[in-house]
């Protein structure tokens, strides 16, 4: 079987979702979902050391894009600003209009959000949006991801898997059954999402050589296994790296 | 999470050169001439009598270049375009074998119906008619002919396949194991994906193949993140049923082709250095001459951008192709 076969199979199933309630949009075509202020669970006492400990934080209200930023939305940004293209913008599958933009550095993502008066989410904002207030394992609850809730990879890291309908990226508004309580889509799976935060331990001293050097991505992607397809896994990467076929982003607006 | 494994496939050949680059520089004792064809994506090279054969992934055509220096297309146009990962696909190489030409054809282009010529060895007879020898490959990137036997590089299975010229008797001669890398070198990319003291394995992707005596030499392109020095050349016995690879050279930068010069010296074409922010660096590819006895290395041609194939034309001349649509002709200068 060729790769094209896999892609064809992946594209044969297109899930549709109903529009979630949302307020006015700052990124045309991508509504901002309001997340109210209040306490929420952040971190975990399980899993990798760098996501510990679990604690209760008090967060400000913010709003977050309902979907990951799509190629269509990113192209509009390029057309308006002259910013460089996404690396996979012309890819026959990854570059489809309705798919999340991939192949962008942290700087590209940051520039996009700022253009619309927005910002990349902090890790705390990501977790609040993805876990709700009570530290849910997944945006939809505690049931492990299945083929209807998230675009994920094979059981063993880190191969693509089309059992969920998509060999690589899925449309930004797919997997409605995996929506968060507030209606935000694909906070787990589809593409890793850049956050605005530098990578640092939650507690204790940071290795000086690493300080301010890496940015954090969250949420796992279309080729992630279950160990990485969580709301707490922290992926640190060189912010200049722009060749990830599974790395995208969404934006937030702070304050009510 | 090996988050970027997918890039192994995508970045491998998707970063076609854009814009102008400095002309490559020939090593001492060589004179360089360049032929460029705008828009072409030149790939495999071979010799057919006095004609140079070269494939073009941009058009799916096979070209021959005779003594008049003109490129003339021949045979059918093969499927071409971008494959599902964005890489250029099409006829990777054409070789004259007896009364036919044999073509190694790549993936199915994205958006196209799969056809019989995809991921196949295809024979073209003297009348230009094509027939499939075998399409039971995933990515037949290169091949050689030895007598009545074809040895085919499958750059997706990471194997060397052996088969008879009539398509029968196909078997996997060797499948290459992944190459272990010191994860320390990858810490600058991601400290969570490549933890300290950890080991990281990259794909050993076979690329070029050459025959010398009873042994087959294969260049191995270390997969993502394409660390400098991760590439190797190994050799195997061509007749064994389960040959053990013997390391010949290591410390190479993404080798994509291998050839032997008339003196038995080994020529290795390095695709170049990979920059995590910018992809394969322009002008970082090289043609090296390696001395097995001394371990010495000599740069024959430097400053290449995305080179694809090397051909020893005769005792004094070499040809190199670039994906950017250039052919480089190196002529050894005589002492007089």
Spell out the blueprint of helices and strands.
The complex is a heterodimer of chains A (256) and B (336).
Chain A: H1 3-11, E1 32-35, E2 38-42, E3 55-59, E4 62-65, H2 71-81, H3 106-115, H4 123-131, E5 192-198, E6 215-218, E7 234-237, E8 247-248, E9 252-254
Parallel strand pairs in A: 5-8
Antiparallel strand pairs in A: 1-4, 2-3, 4-9, 5-6, 6-7
Chain B: H1 6-14, E1 25-26, E2 30-36, E3 42-48, E4 51-56, E5 61-65, E6 71-74, E7 81-82, E8 88-89, E9 91-97, E10 100-105, E11 120-124, E12 130-134, E13 140-146, E14 149-154, E15 159-164, E16 171-175, E17 179-182, E18 199-202, E19 204-212, E20 215-222, E21 231-237, E22 246-252, E23 255-260, E24 266-270, E25 274-275, E26 279-280, E27 285-290, E28 297-304, E29 307-314, E30 317-322, E31 326-332
Antiparallel strand pairs in B: 1-28, 2-31, 3-4, 4-5, 5-6, 7-8, 9-10, 10-11, 11-12, 13-14, 14-15, 15-16, 17-18, 19-20, 20-21, 21-22, 23-24, 24-27, 25-26, 27-28, 29-30, 30-31
Can you give keywords for this protein?
heterodimer; A: 256 residues; alpha+beta; four-stranded mixed beta sheet; 4 helices; 15% strand; globular; disordered N terminus; B: 336 residues; mainly beta; four-stranded antiparallel beta sheet; 31 strands
Describe the structure.
Chain A has a 4-stranded mixed beta sheet with strand order 7-6-5-8. Chain A has helices at 3-11, 71-81, 106-115, 123-131; strands spanning 32-35, 38-42, 55-59, 62-65, 192-198, 215-218, 234-237, 247-248, 252-254. In chain A, 15% of the residues lie in helices and 15% in strands. Chain B is an all-beta fold. In chain B, 3% of the residues lie in helices and 51% in strands. In chain B, strands 1-28-27-24-23 form a 5-stranded antiparallel beta sheet, with no helix packed on it. In chain B, strand 4 and strand 5 form a beta hairpin. Residues 1-20 of chain B have low confidence and may be disordered. Classes of the chains: A alpha+beta (256), B mainly beta (336).
Q: What is the compact description of this entry?
A:
The complex is a heterodimer of chains A (256) and B (336). Chain A is α+β, with helices and mostly antiparallel strands. Chain A has helices spanning 3-11, 71-81, 106-115, 123-131, and strands at 32-35, 38-42, 55-59, 62-65, 192-198, 215-218, 234-237, 247-248, 252-254.
